[in-house]
Queue: 3 jobs
Job 1
Amino acid sequence: MALDTAITNLSGESNAELRHYADYNMSTDIEIRQMTPRDIPAAMRLKELAGWNQTERDWMRYLAFEPEGCFVAVRAGIACGTVIAQRYGTDLGWIGMVLVDPEHRHQGIGTRLLDRGLEFLDRQGIETVKLDATPEARSLYLARGFKDEYEIERWGGIAAPKQNPGIRRIEFHDMGRICACDAMVFGADRTRLLTALWQEAPEYTAVAHSGGEVAGYFFGRAGSRAHYLGPWVAGGNGELAEQLLVEFLSRAAGERAFVDICLENPDARPMMEAIGFSHQRRLTRMYRGPNRSPGKPSMICGIAGPELG
């Protein structure tokens, strides 16, 4: 049935339903297949069009962690969209890097990519899936059964030189306790991710102890647009959170930096204002499923990144 005929026959339906039908038909020439390393240049082009901060190393990490959960949408041999779906332990899945070329938007491609990622996680038996939604995409996720959990804000600015508090870098022997602490705070095991972040940029890590236990830590990395702080955790200790922040700023002195703060933490926003960073955007942490292990977001100052949780 031709599209114009179909729309005439559906004239009693709502505009939204007509748009959905049209979008579906316009995306039927799209192939969604598993991503490979050869797709990274195209994926970088898409994230540049979106103004995001990821690097080729980030894409390689996604593919190394979950090669069967990374997908690309292709039209006429050209990549026009991406999505990654990855697992944290056996109970939590994460959706990220939902990108569609601006010239191919509003054609149902993002929806099909999201569905492919969700299908992958469902096949793995993952009961809860989370993501960080932009305001523009939130309605798409709501339609797929996601619910709001809490708000996140990106802040950015130049890391001004400050006196270094002297908090030491993370060493290999610290990782076991840090990962155990992070699992309690985040709500799932991120050992694989944290180990990779430590190996990639040990100079942007720090850990503080109290009574022999991990009291706070951060990981960081270099992005294509700015250095990134996160995850940044201080166990609800505002003074320690500030010390960790100053430590990171000292390490990245003079460079542009981004932090995605968790608004469940009452100290995070005042600290961003105090160092002169400016608000960039807002995201909504969303979940689908029972969310049996929500973690302790009030202890999280900065997340690992919208694509990582």
Job 2
Amino acid sequence: MKSILSLLISLFLVQVLTGQNDIITAAEFAKLQKTDKNIRIIDADKASNYKKTHLKNAINIPHTTLYREDNEIEGIIKSPAALANIFGSKGISETNTIIVYDGGSQKYSTRLYWILKYLGAQNVKVLHKDLNEWKKARLLLTQTVPGFKKTVFNVNLNKSIYSDLNNVVDAVTDNNAIIVDARTPAEYNGTSTDKPSEGHIPGAVNLPYTELLTSTNAFKTKAEIEKIVSAKGITPDKTVYLYCRTSVRAGVIFLALKNILGYNKIKVYDGAYAEWSYNYELEK
């Protein structure tokens, strides 16, 4: 009876979390490892955490290593060619089955997920969710750093999920678009002392990314997420523009809308608050 109940719970989680099969459970990952020899695993967490322990054969690519260093604006991703060179140097190709995870916050794994999908990688999955779940599924953990031969990552940009500054300027006055700020209410209102902010992009609605997560940072159910986003006026018929300070937190909402709710018109504004505040005034 207990095994049947566990199976039913697993099936429920699969149904809730895998609208387009890009969010996988630890059990699904364990099975995939046995059947798919084309896997590359990316640990998107900090290098210091990776050194302590990580999944066997995981390659560490902290999200902070993927940003431009020659720009006054914080957090803008490197050029597609530079990004492709980084992934290729780690032995990752756009043809691999790429599994991304982080320490459990969902922020870093979803940021890399969006970057990889933008570059044109077709088969990218986010492992849901953290070390405790992996131990239950008996996933192998290690401190050993794997070595893979360099390869070529061929870029085929998916521009439909990317937004630049000009796109957002147009979206401000577009009735068929909605701009979503994934930061805290204090940041949105310009009252934050933790993360300095002068306000938000004009017309943006505030949806803190944490509202889509449980107290353990797992994604809430499809029904719960649907209720939350619809209350904000976020509907599948509108083009959704997501941002936060540097669009790391925006990735969590991107994954939820894309994979749990099945929305297709979603863009991440990569320059985010950092770029907008550098160029334009903000609302409070």
Job 3
Amino acid sequence: MAERIAISVTVSGLSRLFGDDLSRVVELARSADAAGIAQIALPDHLAIGPRTDRYPYGRFPYRNDEPWLEPLVTLAALASATRRIRLATAVLVAPLRPALLLAKTLATLDVLSRGRLDLGVGIGWQAEEFAGAGVPFAGRAARLDDTLRACRVLWSGAPASFDSPTLRFEELWSLPRPVQPGGIPIWFGVALGERNVRRIAELGAGWMPIGAGPAELADGVRRLHDALRAVGRDPAELRVRAPAPAVRGASGGIDLEATLHRLEELRVAGATHASFALDRFVRDASEIEPFLERLGAYTRE
């Protein structure tokens, strides 16, 4: 039998699950680590503006006053509380952060976690969030590319120099470097237009599709494999984290067992990881522990 798909859990819906005690995410990470979950992921927003109706993936699922922990700070805390589980962002709005600071923060986190960091990135969708950070909303895709290329340069050599239309530096020493060979794996949370296919082929270790069914997923994986071959990379190295299909039972609630049964469809389509958004599958904090234990058991069955 083929190896089961790996399980990733995204920490979402903090206010409903943890109320005012958001530090309980550290306990959650310990439980996920003990259960055998492969990866825990943190989403990212520096702020939420009033125009959530502009969310490009349907209805925005959270209130404006929902808390969002800063993911890299939080992952540092989770790194100290865990030993095995991989630590991810899903996704970090990378163009909001200066490249030099981002490279140093990520490298530090990779060192302190002993090489367990996965960097999931996106370009962001809120103009207000960029305005509040003093960063132009226009041109953010190009700044994403330049930021990630600059990070790779800073991680790979010293002194490091970089020159692009949006960013330039000369002969900088930025240490420590990440401990993972080749630097920190970069996963892209993007739709697969031609530009994004090229972006992943050049810079990416993984793809995080949004709302893709098995047929769309399989087509995207095929396109990415072709693009990787074209630039001399091994398609077998591509990682794909797809949302778990939340199957509803007769009562209207999510049927976890039926959902787990559907994960094989994702694996056959090319996904290496199935992503479970925590607040979509549990109603309150009392359900978290058995939920994680069941996910961990699934991977061992």
